[in-house]
Amino acid sequence: MSRLRWGAGAIAACALAVAPAAASANVQVGSSGWLWGNPLPQGNTLRAMSFAGSTGYAVGDFGTLLKTADGGDTWTGTPAGTFSNLTEVQALDANTLVAGGGCVARVSTDGGASFSRISFTPVESSCPDNSHLAAMWFLNAQHGYLVLADGSIFETLNGGTEFATKTALPGTRAAGGQVNPTDVVFVSDTSGFATTSDGNIYATTDSGVTWKSVSNTNRAVRAITFVTDKIGYAVGDQSLFLKTTDGGATWVPKDIGGTGPADLTSVKCATDKICVITTQAGTTLGITTDGAETAFAFPTPSTDPILAAAFASPTRLAATGQQGSTVVSDDTGATFRPIGGRLVGKFTRVRAGKVAGSAFAPGPNGTLGKTVDGGKTWTRGNVATSQDVLDVSFPTVNDGYALDVAGGLFRTSTGGQTWKTLDTGSTARAQAVYARDANTVMVIGPTGVRRSTDGGGSFEAVKGKVVSHTRLFEVDSAGSAVFAYGAQDVIRSVDGGKTWTVVKKPGKYVKRGKKLVNRLGVRNVDFTDANNGYLLDSAGRLYRTKNGGKAWAELPGVGTDQARGMSFSSPLKGYLVISRFGDVTNPTGFLLRTDDGGATWHPQFVVSNEIADKGVAAGGATDYLLGGEQSLLYSTTGGDTGSSSDLTITTPKTKLTKAAHIVVTGKLKPASGNERVTVGYRRPGSSVWRSQTVTVSANGSFTSSWNVAKGDNLFVAQWQGDFRSHGDGSKVLTVSVGKKKTTKKK
């Protein structure tokens, strides 16, 4: 009998190149107020899925937990309360689910509106590898079994508050061996089955007190399920597919067909005959409609690896995987259609357009992403160049200019559908482009500014000693003004680029010959109007001016010297880009947010990948963000969600006569205990911040200790928030060390 092949229609349906193919709500990210715009529904890899009727749940990386109430057509994010990667999910009914991964497990009885912790580890932020969750199965919201990575088994009768230790699985590390547990399922309160990497299926009839091997194929068994009390299936490496029809007493291998052996990772069934299997490679799904009596069909539902699949009904099949790619089928997997979509390509930065709701993301090989609905959806408008697009400027949604890394300049009047090549009149490779309106456009750097007033028809070098020989690499639009800057200089124009004046930098100017010189290096400049602006220097210090650079004030409330980029939407509101915070030591996607002009800053943990240096654009009503190279997000709340919090620090004495060891204490409100607060410290005369991350007690208090030196010692505390409250940053605490000034008697 020839094997049926499905998938030609499925592959065509899943070419995710432009806007979403089906309506899907924009999913919120973790504990922040950022929502996904690309990919849709969201961009974190999903690794497990479970349905109870049309209500289903999917879990994956970065603590992602999604819910659907319509069989997978639309998805919303749920507050799992963790950033740990989730690998397990089980929908007991439409409102009851358990999910977990790593050191974390959760249970919800209200459809994911709220979650309770399943406390199988003392601390969720870290636990030994052998204590990671390997598998779990719950019979109801209170009664469940957990299997840890070392083969230990625990039973809970009260939803994960207390546990009883059971006998470890034979051959696992907890039993003195080296085998890994892989899955578990219970068919009654006391009877269940567990699988291991050495090919065993173990059965228990006494709640895990004893275990007996009922099958051993010497091929790793990865997943097991029961459809009825008699019929069950198990899958594993090298196309292993086992079936039982006698309640698990015996297991019979089945030939699933296919082009070659594949490692199977999961099996989910709609009936005792209709099942779907996933593979480790994720290139195909395997589907049977006759209980594996004949060869499976192997459709390819997506160009992205599919790692999880489950049935909402005998005909409705949903599947998901890498970067959140999601597909559904209404004919038991014969054909698939995509949910949401993804722009193909990579991006290097994001720029807000002049028109509200518009933003643009350039990238390699002519790539250009575009949104005109406030980041909810993105479309492709490639520039007519094979070079990487360095910068773009769109004064309207249709009129725009693009600059590539080779210095090529291009214009569109069709919103990016078609492009015209322009001649800047120079062979120098410009570093940035700015269009004041459809006709007035400037190219910036590498030395000076070239300007056109006829839509790019002709360019002239802007004259004047302030600009003509100044090395520049970036441009910043600020209302009626425009700023250009390089590693050593900042200049400003208030007449559309005709003339430019010097903006003084923070710090001391020293006379060298006939010139005043200030060697402070410039990393980033962002002005919100002609007078109000911020400068980030090459040492990571942040400054603010309210008078166009006549005077600058340092803002030590940032509590870090690691900021790489920034963007402000008003004199008071803006972001800094950082890569690490608190306990997170690997490069990831953090922002610092201020709403008070830089006096205080609170972290936002947005994405699992690093945010690009130019990856945040504060657009006013809507802000935009590029995470990694493909994730495009937006926020209308300044990136915050949840209720406010309050963080303060103090020390008994803020004035000391000599160097000493001091204690800095603080208070977090509200607090439930075990929150992690990072206290930063900067020594006198240094630009480098050191930090301690400490645990908050149940009453909200925390303590850190430091050695202070002569001069002004600066302290700042910051908290990234949780899934109830957004983060907060303390005001700067200054501890001054030095001799007391004495007044001479007359």
Task: List key phrases describing it.
single chain; 746 residues; mainly beta; six-stranded mixed β-sheet; four-stranded antiparallel β-sheet; 1 helix; 66 strands; globular; disordered N terminus
Short note summarizing the structure:
With 746 residues, the protein is mainly beta. 1% of the residues lie in helices and 41% in strands.
Q: Which consecutive residue ranges, at least 5 long each, have pLDDT under 50? A: 1-23
| Helix content range | under 10%
Morphology call:
globular
The class by helix and strand makeup works out as: mainly beta
- Biggest beta sheet summary: 6 strands, mixed
Number of helices: 1
Q: What is the residue-mean pLDDT, rounded to a whole number?
A: 93
Distance between the termini: 114 Å
Percent strand equals 35-45%
| Rounded Rg | 30 Å
* Beta-strand segment tally: 66
Describe it for me?
The strands form 17 sheets. Strands 59, 61, 62, 64, 65 and 66 form a 6-stranded mixed β-sheet that branches. This protein has a 4-stranded antiparallel β-sheet with strand order 1-57-56-55, with no helix packed on it. The protein has a 4-stranded antiparallel β-sheet with strand order 2-3-4-5, with no helix packed on it. The longest helix is centred in the first third of the chain and has 6 residues, at 8-13. A hairpin with a 5-residue loop joins strand 10 and strand 11. The chain is mainly beta and 746 residues long. Residues 1-23 have low confidence and may be disordered. The protein is built from 1 helix and 66 strands. 1% of the residues lie in helices and 41% in strands.
